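Task card 7
Instruction: Convert sequence to structure tokens.
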Amino acid sequence: MNDEATALDRAHQAMIAEPDSDAARMRFHERLADSELFLLLEREADGESIEPKVFPLGDGPVVLVFDRELRLAEFVGAEADFAALSGRHVVKMLAGQGIGLGVNLGVPASETILPAEAVNWLADMLGHGPQEAEERPREVSAPRSVPESLLSGLDAKLAVAAGLARLAYLVAVQYDSGRNGHLLAFVDTVPGAERALASAAGEALTFSGLEAGEMDVAFIAASDPLAARLARVGLRFDLPEPARSEVTEIAPPGMDPDDPPILR
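Output:
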């Protein structure tokens, strides 16, 4: 099969190369959650209801996902029904069902099986969120001792948040209450995008491997005097411009985080 490596392939290979590295393991699971996956179905989706094809294995039942349609087709060897979902939706859908997840079976670069316990663990990890800032910062300064794993995680998350905000600043902060910490402030956020951006920031922190990490999240306007203070000392992340399209796309079942597909 002439198949270029995907982000999931590379993350899996890095995890295999460093079997004792928690950071490599966390990056693989983060890439799995972020990837668009093609879930093999028993039959064609019925509206918002889908029925994954379940395979009874010795260690428990699993459903199968692939990060490319071609990989699914070559594994099945015939026409098959599938649903395109984000990895996080698949994991959250399976959590608590006692069903494992077979990933890219037949693809040596990233073939793996997550048992049901690992699926539940990942769903729990994805449920963690950041602390949203409610206090007014008294002092802001350049971020201190921020691990590279968090910075690269934020880079990856915000790179796919096109159009949700203009930019973001990461700073060290002291609040009026005297509490110290770090703050990720988004500037000129699109109304309604706050939850998605806060979740992205929370996942970057969670998968950075920091056991006791904390990061507040705030949303401000460019006209806010605080924005000028952040620009002087903060680490800046520019969010990409949204792709322009004349076609309005209708998201398939499960792509809306507030309206996941129904598992039958």
